[in-house]
Amino acid sequence: MRRRSREARPVARPSRHGRHGRENRSPVVRPPLPPLDTRIERFDIAVSTAAEFLRSAWSELRDVSFEIGIMPPSATGAIPRWQVLREQKRIILYRVPIERLGHPHVDDDLHRRMMIEGAVFRAAAEYLERDPWDLGPERFRFL
Asked: Which residues neighbour 101 within 8 Å (Cβ) at sequence distance 6 or greater?
């Protein structure tokens, strides 16, 4: 029988290991995750891009503030999807009625975005007292 000595012998480790054999571990913090993409953020982006397009196309809309509200104040009858305040140069778009009462014929991200942009165009057309199809003639040139 061989006897083991009780002396502590240094263990030869490859150079990639540290003092405790754990040098090359992964970082404590995970890699950055993609930003959260929520329904509210997608609504905000759709409204802001449509509003910027309209502001660049129509000089009457350059000073108009496009705002987002959650729900309109209590109303009798039909629930409004937006409110136009010409004196204050404001258009308020209500997120919940636009999302819940609008029914895209295909339920995907593209059609939901088109539904939101359509509401922005109709609200701006009401502000300008024009037809919504008159607001973006360059956009529909391919038709």
From this structure: 79, 81
- SS3 readout for the chain: CCCCCCCCCCCCCCCCCCCCCCCCCCCCCCCCCCCCCCHHHHHHHHHHHHHHHHHHHCHHHCCCEEEEECCCCCCCCCCCCEEEECCCCEEEEEHHHHHHHCCCCCCCHHHHHHHHHHHHHHHHHHHHCCCHHHCCCCCCCCC
Do residues 97 and 75 lie in contact, with contact meaning Cβ atoms separated by under 8 Å? no
Per-residue pLDDT tens digits for 48-106? 999 999 999 899 999 999 999 999 887 778 889 999 999 999 999 999 999 998 888 88
Per-residue pLDDT tens digits for 2-48: 565 566 666 665 555 556 655 655 556 666 777 678 889 999 999 99
- In this structure, are residues 124 and 135 in contact, taking their beta carbons and an 8 Å threshold? yes
